[in-house]
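tool_call: predict_structure(chain=1)
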Amino acid sequence: MRNRWSIIILMLFATLGLAANRSWYTFNEGIQKAKKEQKPIVIDFYTDWCSWCKVMDKNTFSAPEVEQYLFMHFIPIRLNAENQTENIKFQNKVFTPRQLTSAFQITGFPSVAFVTPTEEIITVVPGYIEKTKFLKILEYVQQECYKTNVSFDEFLKSGCKPSTKTKPK
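tool_result:
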């Protein structure tokens, strides 16, 4: 019995360790991987001077449950929004990260964009997001609830099912 518990604990730590050692993708690498694996993309638009970006990295992105879900169901990309030297390709156009940030209409940091594997923008969420809410956003996008016109608030209440309530005439 003791050996069985040791094996279970060892497997648990090994599983958690898999997510903890993963690195986010560069933009071009992540876009190609998303197309190949048909996974949605999460883009973390950050700047070096943004204190809330650092807090989100530490408290949200680094939380084991977030990291595991993120790497299992998405292709995570980090993009320094102020970089003006790198060339990245999105929707068959070449941008610098700074130009792409403007194209996504991002004006504050952190901001997280959700994109389909075919490079369609799903949504951009501005500001700091705590880990519990971020996990729910990941679930919402991964389950493609936005395609069924289920709002995020409805999703939080009853999941990814369209409302069956009939509107009064």
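agent: Strands lie at 41-46, 75-80, 88-90, 93-95, 111-115, 121-126. Proceeding to next step.
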